Amino acid sequence: MRGKTIDPEDWLTAVDESGFRATTVQETLIDIFARVEYPLSAEQAWDVARLARPKTGRATVYRTVEKLENLGLIRRVHGYQGCSYFVPTLPELMMLFICLDCGRAEYLDSQPLDELIKQSEDSSGHHITDSRLQLFGACADCQQNA
Amino acid sequence: MRGKTIDPEDWLTAVDESGFRATTVQETLIDIFARVEYPLSAEQAWDVARLARPKTGRATVYRTVEKLENLGLIRRVHGYQGCSYFVPTLPELMMLFICLDCGRAEYLDSQPLDELIKQSEDSSGHHITDSRLQLFGACADCQQNA
DNA sequence: CTCCCTGCAAACTGTTTGCAAGTAC
DNA sequence: GTACTTGCAAACAGTTTGCAGGGAG
User: Fold this and answer.
1) What is the SS3 assignment for B87?
2) Could you state, in chain order, the average pLDDT of each consecutive group of 10 residues for chain A (146 residues)?
3) Is residue B84 within 8 Å of residue B69, measured between CB atoms?
4) Helix H or strand E segment including A17
5) What is the domain count for chain A?
6) Which of B1, B75, B133 is nearest to A112 (CA)?
7) CA B35 / C1′ D6 distance in Å
8) What is the CATH number of the domain that holds A66?
9) Both A73 and A108 in a single domain?
10) Where in the sequence is the domain holding B109, given as residue range(s)?
11) In this complex, which of A126, A136, A138 lies closest to B138 when CB atoms are compared?
């Protein structure tokens, strides 16, 4: 992920502590997701996983992706390319920008979103417990190269 | 849709002006979507449509929903219940709140979002052309009745 | 040794497509 | 009459499930 790095070791620890077994498939997938700059579907993750580990089963990848999502290590991306793509979760950074040109994803500072949510709660009377915000457009690099 | 009403006539006019033919199926579906308070999937819309018009085909509903989405009359909802639900589009009101308790959807004032986007553009250097923001929680009514 | 994880194949769900008949204009 | 629209059935893609064998603790 752009602008910030994830240590696959931390994820393995998290998986381990959740009572799941540390296996080669999980290790492979964690390695993949911890490094991607682009949202990845389970199907694509399967393709990539088989490069490193040809016999990997499709169902196993789907199950592992679900596990990682439940653990909060990866996060589903909603929007243009569909709703079955995943990016690594970076704690407390919940605003995601996706470049429609190069496809890369980047987390933005989420403080403005926190303020927006507080403001909306006050004016509407609703209690907001979760949010999905994704922004789309052209990243700084792609604007220059256009 | 809560807090604001849509006149199905306006939609029929919009469909007509787009070069599509005004047919009974389209009229039925427009009637359905213009009135819903809850996000509706194409499958659900098919069920409702058959109450009024039993012989309605499933594919026709899917095709019509796609048409209405392309015309911008309805809008896809991303989130908790999945990503294949639709609500009527209200111009310039792009912040959607969905109650996880009663399921109702409500548009909120989107001005704070406009400001947030401007702010994010300035700090990141990206050019933002579209956004998806959905908020989830408990609406004012459901909090009272809890 | 026990239980979880894995791969395979089959089942399933939501959605799309091809085509002949129907309908608006 | 022409071209778009419809209903039906079949095809399709992504995802989930059942199960027997394998591997971790």
Assistant:
1) strand
2) 70 78 88 91 95 94 94 86 87 82 90 92 94 91 90
3) no
4) helix A8-17
5) 2
6) B133
7) 24
8) 1.10.10.10
9) no
10) 95-145
11) A126
The pLDDT value recorded for residue A92 is 65
Cβ separation of B131 and A134 shorter than 8 Å? yes
Write the residue in A115, A124, A137 that is nearest to B126 by C-beta.
A137
Cβ–Cβ < 8 Å for B98, B39: yes
Strand C positions closer than 7 A to protein CB? 4-10, 14-18, 23-25
- Contact between A94 and B135 (Cβ < 8 Å): no
Helices (H), B36-144: 42-52, 58-70, 111-124, 140-144
Q: Which residues contact B90 (CB under 8 A, 6 or more apart)?
A: B1, B4, B6, B107
Token pair recorded at residue B82: 């999945």
Q: Look at the block and give the residue holding tokens 């040809």.
A: A54
Distances (CA, A) of A59 to A109, A141, B10, B100, B120: 35, 37, 47, 30, 39
Place of tokens 């926190």: A114
Query: pTM of the full predicted structure?
Result: 0.86
- pLDDT of B131 reads 87
CATH code at B128?
Answer: 3.30.1490.190
Do B77 and B23 fall within a single domain?
yes
